Amino acid sequence: MTKNNTYNIPVSCLCSIYRETILSEFIIAIDSIMIQKYIPNEIVIIVDGYIKKDIKMFLEFIKTDEIFKIYKIKKNKGLGFALNYGLKKCTNSIVARFDTDDINLQNRLKIQYDLIKKNSNLSIIGSNVFEYNEKIKTCKIKKVPLNHKEIFKSYMFRNPINHPTVMFKKDDILKVGSYKNLNLFEDYELWLRCIKNKLMILNIEKPLVAMKRESLLNKRSGTKYINYELNFLKEVLKIKTIKKIYIPFYILRIIMRITPLRLSKLISYLDFNRENSNFDILIEIDNIKKNQFSYSKKYEDSKYNFF
């Protein structure tokens, strides 16, 4: 047990930050991990190129805490490159991903760690997520297929894992080639390779992460995303992680990137994988900020005073 009445578990939490990272969101993401009863013994932060001055100041503030391992990449290389680099820096055999604008909910690491340690055949474990909007105070659940059989049935049609919720065995991910630099598709392409290599995957029904969304619609639309889709399609066809018979489906995905907003709204409305939730994520955020052991509180009280 640590001095704050918490327990360390042998998990490396991995994230990447870059020029668009927002300080207040980053600190809340860190706090959502660190104020829990079960915390990791290592948080690996990859600085992917240029970052803003306020982020630099916060990194200086936390680097005296030995739990944080901060590594810098001189020029921005992209998320896939940064995560591949960071994964090799993790010292634990089990790694948990987290995004710097999301909130890890109570006992996320403990729940996943216990399951992955209990099942020697399990390589990857994720969960459903809450998607919330602070402005209009809405919160919905983004669901994923749960067991390995359901994942195998659906992986050709959709990403079967919510990336910010994932915990995995480091060696298993490295053996299949780790992350590649495929903009927006770093995780999906990796899971396809994992499935091809017969790694066992499981998702937990209980949402373990809350993801902030300015709009609950898919924001990844427009002509600039077509190239990302095409690069992804070329890669998965090259290494044969999808069958050619599914090409029309992926072409349809590309077409949907440029659909009119009204049609996008209709598609979102008909999305049966989302449902209303009474979870009040705004209260959760407020409680994190007020916690006496939070970095929000410590940094607010320090000479940096970012609030």
Descriptive tags:
single chain; 307 residues; alpha/beta; Spore Coat Polysaccharide Biosynthesis Protein SpsA, Chain A; ten-stranded mixed beta sheet; 39% helix; globular
> Strand fraction band?
15-25%
Largest sheet: 10 strands, mixed
* Residue runs with pLDDT of under 50 for 5 or more positions: 266-274
Note the gap between the termini. 31 Å
| Global geometry | globular
- Give a count of the beta strands, DSSP E runs of length 2 or more: 10
Number of helices: 12
Estimate the helix proportion, in percent: 25-40%
Average pLDDT, rounded to a whole number, is 83
Mind explaining what this structure looks like?
The chain is an alpha/beta fold. Strands 1, 2, 3, 4, 5, 6, 7, 8, 9 and 10 form a 10-stranded mixed β-sheet that branches. β1, α1 and β2 (38-48) form a beta-alpha-beta unit. It has a single domain (7-221, 259-301), classed as Spore Coat Polysaccharide Biosynthesis Protein SpsA, Chain A. It has helices at 23-34, 53-62, 79-89, 108-118, 148-154, 170-175, 186-196, 224-238, 247-256, 261-269, 281-290, 295-301, and strands spanning 7-17, 38-48, 68-73, 94-97, 102-104, 122-133, 138-142, 167-169, 200-212, 274-276.
Give the SSE layout.
Layout: E1 7-17, H1 23-34, E2 38-48, H2 53-62, E3 68-73, H3 79-89, E4 94-97, E5 102-104, H4 108-118, E6 122-133, E7 138-142, H5 148-154, E8 167-169, H6 170-175, H7 186-196, E9 200-212, H8 224-238, H9 247-256, H10 261-269, E10 274-276, H11 281-290, H12 295-301
Parallel strand pairs: 1-2, 1-4, 2-3, 6-9
Antiparallel strand pairs: 4-8, 5-9, 6-7, 6-8, 7-10
Helix pairs in contact: 8-9
